[in-house]
Amino acid sequence: MIRKVKFLLKLAASDLRGNAPVHLVALAIIAAAFLTLGVFVLIATNLRALASHWEEKIEVCLYLADGTSEPEAQKMHARLRALPEIDSVEYIGKDRALEDFKAMLGDESDLIEGLDENPLPSSFVIKLKREFRSLDEVEGLAGRLGRWEGVAEVDYGAPLLESFSSAVRLIQGAVLMVGGLIVVAVVFIISNTVRLTMYSRKEEIGIMKLVGASDAMIRAPFLLEGTLQGAAASSLGVAALWALYAAALSEIALPGLLATFTPRFLDGSAMAAIVAGGSILGAAGSLTRFKDFAEE
Amino acid sequence: MRRPHRAMRKRDADMIELFHVGKKYSRESQALTDVSLKIGKGEFVFLTGASGAGKTTLLKLLFAAEKPTSGSILINGRNITRLSKNEIPLLRRNIGVVFQDFKLIHHWTVFQNVAFVLEIMGVPRNELKKKVWHALKMVRLHHKLDSYPLKLSGGEQQRVAIARALITDPKILLADEPTGNLDSDITRDIMRLFTEINLKGATMLIATHDKGLLTSMSKRVIILEKGRMISDGSDESSLIRAGRLARAGIGGVA
Fold first, then answer.
1. Most CB atoms closer than 10 Å: which of A140, B67, B74, B160?
2. ipTM of this complex prediction, to 2 decimal places
3. Residue B176 and residue B100: Cα distance in Å, rounded?
């Protein structure tokens, strides 16, 4: 048995050598297909990560109506702290708000030098407990706070977060579609490659059958080749994706809004899944074309 | 009255038996019609006829490359027309086949070509080496183990093919125009080899349209014409045989 397996392995290896150009071209094409798929998966993964990163950092800003007195503000502070959703609350009085604003303007702070009166409202900056940092929870809380007396406005970056979430959903849909297309393409390419090598060895296969080789013995080396090819191409695709990722990370500085976010690479299980998928597709591709040669 | 010795032979002494075998490839082409014949164990038989007479088809039926459309075929008492797909390789390992175009795998060495069947049967390495060496010794090519077929002459390639056919010690050796591509000296050489193999017990069925071979070797000759068996004789004079062959369209290749 071991002798037979060794012999079939040798046959597969000798065919890979003999048809090296065909196999290399196919390998490159399939690797490119997996790279494309990988790019989409990577983008989707990172957008999802970014979404939760932003949700992590979600803050609710409660602006007080003009003319709210200091004691009223103190009362409101206590009431906020008692809410179960809330982790911490910081009060920012009118004066502090103005200072912050000046600091933000920097050199151009003279723009507001001439103001007679501080136009900025006092506000509370509210941080939520971890379990409440999601778009839905924040929306609910903001709605309730907005109805409190003395509250002028509640701000939590709603439009940005909402449009971002729907973009993530859209891209996940695209990943599924691209993934499906790539699965079909890979099976097609591998089955064609196997067919090409089978044609190039048609005579040889005929001879093997004449002297008593069974179908299974003729099929085994091709199955092995297809599986190997799928595994190698998907690994290569993942490696190329990593190279692309590393280059992008060092070359491209993320704009302000994204500066605190480090894009991540696929995790181990995702990479293993891609390579396993590649091997299975390779095996499937090599089996589809065998029927033509079964009858001789 | 022609073959009294055959009439007396017991049924189980037949290696190849055909009963009313017919083969149609399509509606128009009837390759074989109602062929019945028996070939005894250890017999040496020539099969001849003009090209298209059905020689190759008959051989293909015997190693199950084709199935007959009608009739039945027994090899060593076993009906091979009802073999399953998985049994065909096993049948072929017990029948050696030699072709006009040698059918060697060119990127394999002589050793690899001859050893192939043993490899897929999982024969242990040492035994395999020994067997390959003996088979090649028999065809006097044991010094060319590592050569590639295309580096060899036509006669040598055919001898490698014969060694490959012999490697499993088959009871039957079929040959389809084995000397069709070889000149007459080498043809004689191959025929000597076939006689030697026959003497060791193998049943030989050799298709050829080489009139020189048929007349010079006094063996049983089965003649096919347009798919029908028109003559089966072993004891006729060479003059009668030459006449029969001429009528069947066998020219003098030799």
1. B160
2. 0.83
3. 6
